[in-house]
Design goal:
Layout lengths: L16 E2 L11 H11 L15 H11 L6 E4 L2 H12 L5 E5 L5 H9 L2 E5 L18 E5 L11 H10 L3 E5 L13 H4 L3 E6 L12 E4 L2 H10 L7 H12 L1 H24 L3 E2 L6 E5 L5 H10 L2 E2 L12 E4 L3 H14 L1
Parallel strand pairs: 1-11, 3-4, 3-5, 5-6, 6-7
Antiparallel strand pairs: 2-8, 7-8, 9-10, 10-12
Helix pairs in contact: 1-8, 2-8, 3-4, 9-11
The protein binds pyridoxal-5'-phosphate.
Pyridoxal-5'-phosphate binds next to helix 3.
Length: about 350
């Protein structure tokens, strides 16, 4: 099988404007650094012993934040880990999972490892799922909302209808929900087949710590707990997670800035004749007037600006550009204007 190819991480990272993996250009909350140093202690002695196997403090903190009992929450080594465990828990060899294409193709890689069958559904012009059946019989349906790489989120009533139509689990991958106008988290309480996944990689600026979570009914969480690695989160990640989730003021301010930057950057691109899909994430999908995404990618690469170009025929005409700081996006807009 072909493996998933993640976005390029250049070795000389500091010399690039890096807008290719939807990381956050702002640093994490200062309280995260304090918490990591406190956990480490002066001589690192805390590292001798295993971390909490259940990450209980994190479940409690996340539960309080999202309004759920901790028994509805599982912590993960990045949301990728919990996506993998959902497939391992619910889709045996030969059983089917599905997702929207284009969205996050890693679901397909994870399913292939399990020997599960994969079906994809396309999107209509008005951003709905094309041909979704009245009753979807597969074991899992993954919905990335807001959609990556395109940007729009699906409306709550539309997602609710999908929950009714799925015979198996509906997984709402809300990786980018903190940048969006809303979320579908409330559906977890109303539908026993809905799971929501979140991550601290993007809005909390902690991609390097690998922290994600899932929210679902306790029976689902118990199933996921059985199959995860028992020490899936290291000590420093656990300390960082609690501190980050508790600093909501910092999170909100960071997301507000990124949304504001996203809006003026999108307007700037449209002024240059680009098509920009209205985005709810920390990225935009933009198509140049000549519809040659590769040419623009290469022009930006030469100027040490890294963005994401997908060779998939549905996406090759454009680029996904992560939203960085104002200074980074001004430089990117100027480079795009220069490339022409
Ligand atoms: C839609 C989507 N889901 C999941 C992930 C994985 O995130 P994490 O860093 O939490 O593993 C990403 C990362 O880019 C993503 O775009």
């Amino acid at each position: 099988m072909a493996g998933y190819v993640p976005g390029y991480q250049p070795p000389d990272i500091a010399s690039w404007i890096k807008l290719n993996t939807n990381e956050n250009s702002y640093p994490p909350s200062p309280r995260v650094v304090e918490a990591i140093l406190a956990e480490l202690g002066p001589d690192g002695a805390s590292l001798r012993t295993y971390p909490s196997a259940s990450s209980q403090k994190l479940r409690e903190t996340a539960g309080e934040l999202y309004g759920f009992d901790p028994s509805w929450i599982i912590m993960a080594n990045g949301s990728d880990e919990v996506l993998n465990n959902l497939i391992r828990a619910f889709a045996a060899e030969g059983e089917e999972i599905a997702y929207v294409h284009p969205s996050y193709s890693y679901y397909a890689t994870l399913a292939e490892v399990q020997g599960a069958r994969v079906r994809t559904y396309g999107l209509t012009e008005d951003f709905r799922i094309a041909g979704f059946p009245e009753r979807y019989p597969g074991k899992l349906f993954f919905l990335t909302t807001p959609n990556a790489p395109l940007g729009p989120a699906f409306p709550l009533d539309y997602i609710e209808d999908l929950a009714r139509r799925c015979a198996g689990m509906l997984v709402l991958d809300e990786t980018y929900a903190d940048f969006a106008d809303g979320s579908a988290l409330e559906l977890v309480k109303r539908y026993d087949n809905v799971v929501v996944t979140r991550t601290l990689s993007k809005s909390y600026s902690l991609a390097g710590m690998r922290l994600g979570l899932a929210i679902a009914r306790p029976e689902v969480i118990a199933a996921l707990d059985k199959i995860r690695d028992h020490y899936n989160l290291d000590r420093l990640a656990q300390a960082a997670c609690v501190a980050a989730l508790k600093d909501q003021e910092y999170l909100q301010e960071c997301c507000r800035r990124i949304r504001a930057t996203r809006e003026w950057f999108s307007t700037g691109l449209r002024t240059l004749g680009y098509e920009v899909i209205p985005s709810q994430g920390n990225y935009v999908f933009a198509t140049p007037p000549d519809r040659n995404g590769k040419r623009l990618y290469e022009g930006l690469f030469e100027r040490k600006i890294l963005v994401r170009h997908f060779s998939d025929p549905l996406l090759a005409h454009g680029l996904r550009i992560s939203i960085g700081t104002d200074a980074e996006m001004k430089a990117t807009l100027a480079a795009i204007e220069e490339i022409g």
